[in-house]
Amino acid sequence: MSATQFICPDGQHIPILQCLTACPKQTRCMFLPTLRAIAKSVNRPITEPTVTELIAGVRETYLKKTMPYAVSPQRILYALQGQAVHTMHERCTQGEILSEIRLKDQITSGQFDLYGKILDTEECVLGDLKVTSSYKLMKALGIYKQKIPTGEIYKTGSRKGQLKYKTILCHDGVRHVWDWAVQLNYYRMLLEQAGFPVHRMYIQALCRDSGLRIAAERGIDQPLYIIPIYKISNRWINRYFSRKAALLQQAKDANILPPVCSSRERWQNQKCLDYCDGREFCSYGRKLQQFRKAG
Ligand code: SF4
Ligand code: SF4
Question: Which of 261, 273, 286 to mutate to test the pocket of ligand 2 (most atoms within 8 A of CB)?
């Protein structure tokens, strides 16, 4: 099932069709074409679980596929930014670069962004476009903050005699690109199965909050980064996706809610609190929200 309702800024739920036909408020919360674009983006006519849906938690995907969930147009506007970037690139491939083609196998389907001579003279390069936050970029680039002693000591106050510290940015951390790497590697496999070899893979990430102080504090001082993605074995990728597809199918066949998503899939609960479209129907998500309300 797809999203069937919009959540208005005052919290009221309204069927998407009703919103698009006539807003019951005095004025719409955004332009009608913007709402139509959002409605289109949340209602994709794809029945099989996609690569991105299988990377998400099985419970989340199960709920999104079976329940009539609601989305807030204000909160998913960012998805339109991503779509605009994709459309812009699709129009500039000049017939020599493949783009936005959905490929399918017996497990799933996925739509790669760009394939061809996209970076240098080498053919067969797979590229994926992301519009993301400085926080996610900081993690993806392996940047982290560390406190180091300045060599000075507090001379007065409650911390008198204690060492002074300052925070510095280090660039040698673990690159948190697991979800991007798994996604791109599946696209690679789909392309290879279709007879298109993939020699290298890259993410081109546009920073959504580039130029803001918060981005600079995270060490993100460019609006765009090219991030290489390394090969993961076909065997591992196949096992991972087959297992998740099987769990999803079993849940759908038995009409039984799958187990709570893993900590990584839940973004350490952040997703359950604010971003998961299935949270309204998930006991775990509802419990977390009650705890937050109780303060
Ligand atoms: S236009 Fe905005 S306020 Fe009006 S019904 Fe739609 S979501 Fe609600
Ligand atoms: S609310 Fe959390 S646990 Fe529940 S489906 Fe969503 S991500 Fe998974």
Answer: 261
